[in-house]
Batch of 4 targets.
Target 1
Amino acid sequence: MSDVARQMPIGEVAERTGMSASRIRFYEARGLLPEPDRAGGKRRYGAEVLRRLAIIDAAQRVGFTLEEIQDLLGSRDELAHERLRQLAVLKLPELDDLIARATSVRQMLRICSRCSCDSIDVCRMFDERVLALRDRPAAGAARRPKRGASTVA
């Protein structure tokens, strides 16, 4: 069986990975996937693309940006596990901030869920002391400066 015959068209790759063909082409255009072989002008992928797409998907699920994933996948002098460790260490404070924000939002929604005010104009939800809760860190969470993040309202 020739190499071309063992290669998969983009539709098969999409089906096997659960991704759309346009998503695969996007990753290719962004440099996350190597340029595929072509047969009759159509993309043909080897089985290794399935592993690469699984890595990209898993990395996105834990919050890595496409730039961070490209850095992880890129060829540099350091070992892959060292790059992964560095990216994870950088990502953890962002996750801590996200958890603190979600906890604050949950706290505000709990207050809203107990509202029985006749008018929004008199609702204590909008009192200064209640609004101050949004800026208070969650129990056990350390506050860090946010990079361009909006505040919880």
Target 2
Amino acid sequence: MTARIPAIVLGGTGYVAGELLRLLAAHPHLDLAAVASDSQPDEPVAQFFRHLQPVLPHLRFAGHDETLEYVTANLATAVFSAAPHGVSAPLIDRLLTAAEQAGTQPRVVDISADFRFRTASAYESVYKHGHGAPARLAEFTCAVPEHLNALDTTHVAHPGCFATAILLASVPLLSLGLVEPRLFVTGITGSTGAGRQPTAGTHHPQRHSDLYAYNALAHRHAPEVRALALEASGVDAEINFVPHSGPFARGIHVTVQAVACEPLTSHALVHALRDYYDQSVFVRISGELPRVKDVVASNFAQLSGVAQGGTVAVTCVIDNLTKGAAGGAVQWMNRMLGFDETAGLMQSAAGWT
């Protein structure tokens, strides 16, 4: 497909939405048609994302009702939902219902948690409220793009940022039978992962020059990772996850440790990772342990690993807003619409942030 496709962003005032706008403004095949926010209708987008003013000087927020006009008037529309979990599902359901009535065929990538589980009961057990569109669950597949070659549903749910990094590090270990199915994960995330609304844990004076764990062994991403790792690898692994808040804005640093099934050298581990991701342009394997600045503001993930004394440790770094959210969503949309998977996503890391 070479024709340009209109793109719509739902839930348009958060950090992930801002990253989507940055990527879509430069996309070679997608035209940013509307950014929906019922809380800021008709307000300039650049008022909330001042860094985007040079590339989106005239764009204004639309109401979610206006997005229905695009999906009903265009045979194909690329829809990205950056709305919060619990809000995204009913917005998407309403949009898809309108499209079905009009005979159009939008493609949706949901970045919230609403379509990451296969059943409403699984979702409700983690998020503690009813699902907003349970009849739509079968229309979505949730996976990291690198772990699924063929998509058999119309729409996609992108895993969370922590989940993306953990899965990139864990799935090769499990798929190749390198480790026992009991994983111990330490993850550190930047403050943008907590969203735009300040809280006691994300407010700069609290987070600056500090590092602390939260929701240890009880984070909501753990059951999500377990389910997605099982689908990608065929192995049901125990996930023991301790997340941390880091004193930086962007990036995720994850280390996965496990017991090796057989003696393994660091060289052999890195070679196995390299072979596993040989066809994955956005995953880079290095003999040196990666740093967050290697990937910030890019859609690349960087991995490395060490093995010693029967213990395996694999480290993965990603940008939580790009590879862990907006960039991964664009990567999926490229695939769904038949574009080159790398379209609009080959920017290098910023380096000094």
Target 3
Amino acid sequence: MNLKDKVVVVTGGGNGIGRGLCERFAKEGARAVVVADIEFDKAEEVAKSVQGIAIETDVSKEDDIKNVVTETLDKFGQIDLFCSNAGVGGGTGGAEIADEIWQRTWEINTLAHIYAARVVVPVMLERGEGYLLNTASAAGLLTEPRSSVYAVTKHAAVAFAEWLSINYHDKGIRVSCLCPQGVRTRLLLGEDGNDDNFLVAGSISVEEAADVVVKGLEEERFLILPHPEVGDYFRRRSDDHERWLRGMRRLRASID
């Protein structure tokens, strides 16, 4: 996909990777960038900087996503690229994580992709073309050794993106799944900018992540990996799962 003159929607566009995507898409010549975020003040700030529009959106609510699509279509007549990008961490722990955290994380990290596809795919099928960019995580290909809820919901996000690609590619809809490792955002660093996360050492900026996304969209790659080493880790996992699990146990012990 060449982004020039395209109409793009980015959920979670007010912060982090979403902000970086909005800014980069504008530089690429997008006709319109729709910044959807639950933090409306942040969305407005980004929208002003890219001459786009901001829409207050809680992606865990299907009606909010429907509203984003409706408003975008009413104003611009089409959606060329829908970036289902918003996500949350979910906290650390295993099965003991509270039900309400599991539910909220599931809604934002997984169900939001389903809600988006439910409303956007029919519109794209009618046009005979369109592009979905779903942000998951390297944790969706590998794991997150400290957080069961993050690992599980991101695995589900990758699986759903795969399903979309299998079923709609031949009908004109392209699908990419963005799986970054450490990106210097609030999700990685926390509200206070802490640097004790083990992923900080190899982290990249949101601008660097956006560069890789643009290239990945141009090449229509399914997996977009801002950290190339994630592809190597993923292959090692597939080649020898037992060995990979032993390595992950060592990693988990080292970050306790």
Target 4
Amino acid sequence: MADEGAAYQEFAQAFIREAQQQKLLADVTQSATLQADTDLIVAVGIKAAAIAGNSHSPVLCVLVSKTGFEKLLRNLPSGGNKNNISAIYLDQPIKRQIAMIAAVLPEAKKIGLLFSASQDMAGYRKVIAERKLGLFEQKLESPASLYRDLESVLENSDVLLSIPDAEVYNSLSMRNILLATYRSKIPLAGFSPGYVRAGALCAVFSTPSQLAAQAVELSRQFVAAGVLPAPQYPGEFEVSINRQVANSLGIHVRENSVLTQEIKSAANTKEEAE
């Protein structure tokens, strides 16, 4: 680990507990120097992944976004560890995100997306079309045009789906984005429980403990087969709803357990990276 945040600590503690149950010997370190007999490095967070990526040991990256992991791979030296590194993404599969919107907001017909030039929207277009939903997408022209571009999306959408795009959704912009959606009475579907606490209507996400259990399972597979599975999305997830926001927008949202089951049924996502 290269970070001491709460999510990192929760992941580490859950990983150690689960590893012990699987009879795997695991050690937690915040040092850039690893033991010589390390069979597999589980790099927690993008900083740790960047350090571990330059090692000669197999690396499983966790608590990293798909975009961040792909950038890490591109930046690794040509003779480096590219063929010996995998990941469990922090992002949710696109099918699961769209299934969440359909479950929480069954009346929503058009999904709005605001994104920067660094994002590939092909997967979103495909899944939204498969669900026979409409899409209004707006590429961010520049940081200065954020709120003008946002207004365009809100005027043409029933719900705004936020994605892990730091050029659009960051600590500087998030409060104003939430205020704009609230004023427009257009709900925001977030990608973390923090967004829901801040004022988004809903989010689908995986907890550090859920990710830890998946990481231990992939570690067990590595021990058995000697190779890492391909990069993949989280298998287990939770749904978070801001009931106060739902009430203020006049939206009736069913119980979390019902939503979770419906999302699982609609998006059977034991899938590899899209």
